[in-house]
Amino acid sequence: MFIKKLVLDGFKSYGKRVEITDFDPSFNAITGFNGSGKSNILDAICFVLGLSKLELARCHTLNDLIYKNGHAGVTTASVTMEIDNTDGKFSHSDYCNSPVIVVRREVCHVFL
Question: Domain holding 80: CATH number?
Answer without folding.
Answer: 3.40.50.300
